[in-house]
Amino acid sequence: MRLQQHAKILIIDDEPANILLLQRLLQQDGFAALESATDPRQALPLFTEFHPDLVLLDLHMPHLDGFAVMKQFKSRIPDGDYLPIIVLTADVATEAKQQALAMGAMDFLTKPLDHAEVRLRIRNLLQTRFLYKEVQNQKEVLEDKVRERTADLEQAQLEALERLALAAEFRDDETGQHTQRVGVRSAMLAKAVSLPPDQVELIRRAAPLHDVGKIGIPDAILRKPGKLTPEEFEVIKTHTAIGAQILSGSRSPLLQMAEEIALTHHERWDGTGYAGLAGATIPLPGRIVALADVFDALTNDRIYRKALPLEEALIEIERQRGRHFEPELVDAFLQITRAPERAETFLKRVV
Ligand SMILES: [Fe+2]
Q: How far is the CA of 240 from the centre of ligand 1 (A)?
């Protein structure tokens, strides 16, 4: 039978005759995994090594009584585990029983032992123990599944956002590399100005969506090779509000940040940007993406002009310190571009 094959039983009793009797009874019932000790000082090491499913424990023993042994066991039984301890005693005093129950005993067997009672109590408590374990296992399996599904869902959301950023960028830059570079560089800038790691990660994921509103701009204006008329430029400017609208109303912190970035990435530190916000009234993620976006635009060919050489682009960014960009961010930016190990990642794919 399954119960007997799997159950491990530990017997602690200073009377060898009692141990022998219990072993014989249990073996007759088919239990094979039995351990025992007549010295209660061996109880804890045996318990730790053997991991019993049930303990039969004498109360009155030299050196260490049953109460002290239970106290030792208690610290080793994980929270929420169900480990039946049956106390063997001739002592039927109510007080002793109450104390044993308080210490974690589940049941009592009174000496001299009644064989049929011993068998029944052990079997009942073991059945409870194994049912309990089964429920615990199922709970763990379910929790694992929930974790797995949640991770899948998060991954799917991130992928959907990446694809949305790609869709927006597709008409400008068919490789989608611009959005990725803006993400990587924005995260590096965020880290350089000491934003906490979770914010850095949000910026990395949200920044690529900064131009998602370009979806709503007609090709004739977006891809116009020549100079834009003032009216056309007004249309281009709406891509910030369109982007924010597409991303608005979400409970996700990632989308909330993406919305903020979409709305404010064309603001300038000196207040001459699209909506005229200035200085610290522009949200920091917007300030960061503004710099990363302009730097990438300067160092890549655009439909209306050729890329600038890296040195000239760096000079231009520095020139915009306190004008287009926040001074502290320009300093962080220049520091990164001068530090060889960070510059390599930061300037990747700069032509
Ligand atoms: Fe933009």
A: 7
- pTM for this model (two decimals): 0.65
Handedness of CA 31, 33, 39, 44 (dihedral sign): negative
Ligand 1 centroid to residue 214 C-alpha, Å? 8
Please give the radius of gyration of the chain, using alpha carbons only, rounded to the nearest integer.
36
State the distance from the centre of ligand 1 to the C-alpha of 205, rounded, in angstroms: 16
pLDDT, tens digit, 9 for 90 and up, residues 257-280: 999 999 999 999 999 999 999 999
How many helices, marked H, and strands, marked E, lie in the chain?
Answer: 15, 5
Residue-by-residue DSSP string for 37-51: ESSGGGHHHHHHHH-
Give the start-end residues of each E strand in the chain: 8-12, 33-37, 54-58, 85-89, 107-110
Mean pLDDT of 7-36: 95
Q: How far apart are the C-alpha atoms of 277 and 261, rounded to whole Å?
A: 13
Cα separation, 325 vs 327, in Å, equals: 6
Q: Does 197 score more than 80 pLDDT?
A: yes
